[in-house]
Design goal:
It contains 16 helices and 13 strands. It is an alpha/beta fold. Bound molecules: uridine-diphosphate-N-acetylglucosamine (UD1). Uridine-diphosphate-N-acetylglucosamine binds next to α1, α5 and α11.
């Protein structure tokens, strides 16, 4: 008996893995028992194994293998798969990360078994309930016993929803821990050279939100926009499996001429491209934060963001999925590129340690 709590982390989708890595390291340093459950929400090697490798994560102790399905199917499959694992492992606390279906499913099963739930990345709100992630965030935060917030606006959101302040800790942004650790290795890959990119600047694109890729007209307009932008410089687009399937369904009805469509990139290769990019166009949550920390201009193709701090910091701007809006924002973002990356409070590489201190020592971070 160490006196330390036994912790069980549940992860399932690509953006969970970089949030888990710093916490796993900090718990290992303290000698806390830490069990990792992979739900299998993401299962392609480039969406999962490559991230475990790049982030030097230990192999999961349990793999639920839930795979894809409707929201209800996927959430239910995680719940059914996780319940017997929790009953067997009996952890003191279950850690859940971010806002994917695996997150909310794990929070619900744990709360019903009366196991303490800690939510990493608590309190973010877009106030857009058409996004499944917003529903996942709200439900998870209201089930959680410990809410580990990345930024001060998140504290404000939780307070407005009546969540008691003594459950909430301002630990900072854990993704930045992973980014800081990985950056030297990512830079050493010399990705721009490996990809044959010249010195004139290039754009990196990721798009996978249903609102952008599931409607053929919207997706076609986005692809045409990228094709036009490629006349001004290389456009590299690592394509999420959901988006790849939707592009195939367009049957060549939209041009992708000039755009370099790539397979999804592992963490280090992606970071190696993004840190030297001229511009990022995305609908990802994580990239909005990574570009802010790196000081790389970002155009986010969404009407809202749960990470408004990235817009306030000046690196990120939101646009509609229209050619004129994106073209204009891309130009403005490049012009307004900050001379130095913005400094955000507790986006400093120490968040994994603060989370471990909350869990193991009962530390407080206001
Ligand atoms: C999920 C998250 C989203 C996150 C994204 C990161 C939810 C509700 N959504 O969206 O918040 O930004 O992950 O990538 O949890 N597929 C594969 N191989 C895989 C995984 C998925 O081919 O390894 C395909 C399947 O056809 C699947 C589709 O992609 O149906 C969507 O996958 P899913 O996990 O349901 O949602 P994402 O769009 O990845």
């Amino acid at each position: 008996m160490t006196g330390l709590p036994s912790v069980l982390s549940v992860v399932g989708a690509r953006p969970n893995f970089m949030k888990l890595a710093p916490v796993a390291r900090a718990l290992a340093t303290r000698g806390s028992r830490h069990v990792i459950v992979h739900t299998g929400q993401h299962y392609d090697p480039e969406m999962s194994d490559a991230f475990f490798r790049d982030l030097q994560l230990p192999r999961p102790d349990h793999a639920l293998g839930v795979g894809s399905g409707s929201h209800a199917q996927q959430t239910a499959a995680v719940m059914q798969g996780l319940e017997p694992v929790l009953l067997a492992e009996r952890p003191d606390v279950v850690l859940v990360y971010g806002d994917v279906n695996s997150t909310v499913a794990a929070a619900l099963v744990s709360a019903k078994l009366q196991i303490k739930v800690a939510h990493v990345e608590a309190g973010l709100r877009s106030r857009d309930r058409t996004m499944p992630e917003e529903l996942n965030r709200i439900v998870t935060d209201h089930l959680a016993d410990l809410l580990l917030a990345p930024s001060r606006d998140a504290l404000e959101n939780l307070s407005q929803e009546g969540i008691p302040a003594d459950r909430v800790h301002f630990v900072g942004n854990v993704m930045i821990d992973s980014l800081k650790v990985a950056l030297p290795a990512a830079r050493a890959l010399a990705m721009p050279r490996r990809m044959g990119l010249g010195t004139g600047g290039y754009t990196v694109v990721t798009l996978h939100r249903p609102a952008n890729v599931d409607q053929p007209d919207t997706l076609a307009e986005l692809l045409t926009t990228l094709s036009r932008l490629s006349k001004d410089g290389p456009v590299l687009f690592p394509v999420h499996p959901r988006t790849r399937a939707q592009i195939a369904r367009l049957n060549g009805k939209a041009t992708v001429d000039g755009v370099r469509l790539l397979d999804p990139l592992p963490y280090l290769e992606m970071l190696g491209l993004v840190w030297e990019a001229d511009l990022v166009i995305t609908d990802s949550g994580g990239l909005q934060e990574e570009t802010t920390w790196l000081g790389v201009p970002c155009v986010t193709v969404r009407p809202t963001t749960e990470r408004p701090i990235t817009c306030v910091a000046g690196t990120n701007r939101l646009v509609a999925p229209r050619c004129d809006a994106i073209t204009l924002a891309a130009r403005d973002a490049r012009i307004a590129r900050p001379a130095n990356p913005p400094m955000l409070e507790r986006w400093d590489g120490g968040t994994g340690d603060r989370i471990a201190a909350v869990l193991c020592d009962g530390a407080r971070f206001d």
